[in-house]
Amino acid sequence: MGANLTVAVDAMSGDKGTGVIVDAVRQVLNARPDANLLLVGNPDEIQRHIGDQPLPAGRADIVEATEVVTMEDSVAVALRNKKQSSMRIAIDQVKSGRAAACVSSGNTSALMAISKFVLKTVPGIDRPAICTTIPALDGHTHMLDLGANVDCSADHLFQFAAMGSILAQAIDSADQPTVGLLNIGSEDIKGNLQVKEAAELLTNSSLNYIGFVEGNEIFTDRADIVVCDGFVGNVSLKTSEGVARMVSHYLKEEFLRNPVNKLVGLLAKPILRSFGNRIDPRRYNGASLLGLKGVVVKSHGSADAIAFANAINIALLEIDNDVPSMIAERMSHSLSSIA
Amino acid sequence: MGANLTVAVDAMSGDKGTGVIVDAVRQVLNARPDANLLLVGNPDEIQRHIGDQPLPAGRADIVEATEVVTMEDSVAVALRNKKQSSMRIAIDQVKSGRAAACVSSGNTSALMAISKFVLKTVPGIDRPAICTTIPALDGHTHMLDLGANVDCSADHLFQFAAMGSILAQAIDSADQPTVGLLNIGSEDIKGNLQVKEAAELLTNSSLNYIGFVEGNEIFTDRADIVVCDGFVGNVSLKTSEGVARMVSHYLKEEFLRNPVNKLVGLLAKPILRSFGNRIDPRRYNGASLLGLKGVVVKSHGSADAIAFANAINIALLEIDNDVPSMIAERMSHSLSSIA
């Protein structure tokens, strides 16, 4: 197995257990004949889920791990006391070069801290950021940071914009993706100091900066990448999840209100399903930890096999396009242009 | 006309013109026989829309204004150069005691600045905040600040919590409404410095503080009031608008995809309408500017008559419950407990 298209998969973290991970691995191995996967976890448990349908020979190795980082573990505990965890060992595979990427459904803070500690950040990047894809009318938007960095300077926001651009190029094969800065109004006078300063840095950069965008514009095609600090990004992402859940709940409630509605609901089922598919969060599963010397993708804790497979596919796209090196190259330009 | 239940209505601001305001006034006068309204604007234009169906005698006076604050006007221009604007004169009615509240669909920044300048803030309140009602499962949530204050200290967040509690008591007749602080995680270690400090202030206060809430929890019944700084609140509110618009768009598109879907859509129409009514933004129109020596309510610029009437009703509820005095009383307690 070459390191090139190999992804180390944390098979012990996440709410749904090892079975879902094994199913996702099987899906990806079938869809991507060029990819190899390492399953990091309890070998017996993994074998039990593989069962009597072996994975393609030579393309899926098992790497033993004896511990799990739980959702309750503090970053300090995860980092210092769980060196035999599936998360740590999956990241170690990237460090040693055996894999080029790691995918985990575990504790985000721990994943970020261990990745930073083991892999280190790319020169020119102060803080890695978390970037995810969000459904938008006629496409999707990449948004970062989503919670790794609570207080951000203008420089940090600029670095996020640069990293997001490179990720969008990799995922969308876009040439000059547009970058918007999340703000509370389109007028220049609005916004906080960091955002105003970041706008200046972006205007004077080679990035395709299009100006301020407001919260509602995340879901339009106004910008390919929306940049904000981690506090704002996390609130915005969770707000959108909350609204989507409330809307689905109300819709379901109305179609179940009485026998007539239920009958119409039965007729409308394929329409509602096709509607649901378009905003299916599983299609968007997989948040990239950007700015590290290696590809790390965070899957949602409750991801099923389809969702987890999507996260692995994002990792493969990042490897295909060598996102970490592209970020390093971009930052070396920025650094030399400042010097 | 007594000042007690009199609301001054800015009849010139907003995208929809004076006709919509006159219709809203008519609705409110019919529904609330104890309320009086002042229509501030161009008397000919107002009369033209009243037409041959006069408003109830003695309950609706016209006050002349000769200028309009536009959406493009800077705060400085609105404040210094537009003293004959409908917005300014409507607020002046509150200052003079002729009205107890003002409702306007105009420029939010101008409305806040003029209100602060003319009415002044309640002692103990550093900055007025904007609070609106947001639909939530089994009810609604009050959220503030929504954009008046970009950088907030812990003290400011505490003041927002106190003001929001009083507003929720007024609007919902709730006894001890619950207060949550918007944060990016429920663990104590997460969040920025201001939020952590505000949590301490709230824990030690007599408010019914329930802890941190995340973005998705705004739309549940976890807290009656959600407190955050204006940058985060504005992004969150606009994010929710964007998601709701995208979801409606997709839903409509699926029901119009082909003739069969259109037919099912026809059958489902009453169900979809009743669904739409539950998240109808018109039901939630009317954001309260809290912390001023007088009631000021901002209506959405594109409000129709139903929506604008809702904003007037919120103003009436705030007068009914004397929200400004309640805030002043609450803050005097806080001040004396600190002293």
**Spatial shape of chain A:** globular
How many helices of chain A?
11
**What is the CATH T-level topology of the largest domain in chain A?**
Isopropylmalate Dehydrogenase
SSE succession of chain A: EHEHEHHEHEEHEHEEHHEEHH
The largest sheet of chain A has its strands arranged as: 3-2-1-4-11-10-5-6-9-7-8
Number of strands of chain A: 11
So what's the oligomer here? homodimer
Give the N-terminus to C-terminus distance of chain A in angstroms. 42 Å
What's the CATH C level of the largest domain in chain A? Alpha Beta
Low-confidence stretches of chain A: none
* CATH architectural label of the largest domain in chain A: 3-Layer(aba) Sandwich
Mind telling me the CATH superfamily name of the largest domain in chain A? Isopropylmalate Dehydrogenase
Share of helical residues of chain A: 40-55%
What does this structure look like?
Two copies of one chain form a homodimer. Chain A has 339 residues and is of the alpha/beta class. Chain A has two domains: 1-125 and 291-324, Isopropylmalate Dehydrogenase; 129-283, Isopropylmalate Dehydrogenase (3-Layer(aba) Sandwich). The first copy, chain A, has helices at residues 18-31, 43-50, 75-81, 86-96, 108-119, 154-172, 193-203, 230-255, 259-278, 305-320, 323-338, and strands at 6-10, 36-41, 60-64, 101-104, 129-136, 139-144, 178-182, 208-213, 225-227, 287-290, 295-298. An eleven-stranded mixed beta sheet of chain A has the order 3-2-1-4-11-10-5-6-9-7-8, sandwiched between helices. In chain A, strand 1 (6-10), helix 1 and strand 2 form a beta-alpha-beta unit. In chain A, helix 1 (18-31) packs across helix 10 (305-320). The longest helix of chain A is centred in the last third of the chain and has 26 residues, at 230-255. The first copy, chain A, is globular and about 60 Å long. Chain A starts with 5 loop residues before the first strand and ends with a helix. The interface between A and B is large, with 57 and 57 residues.
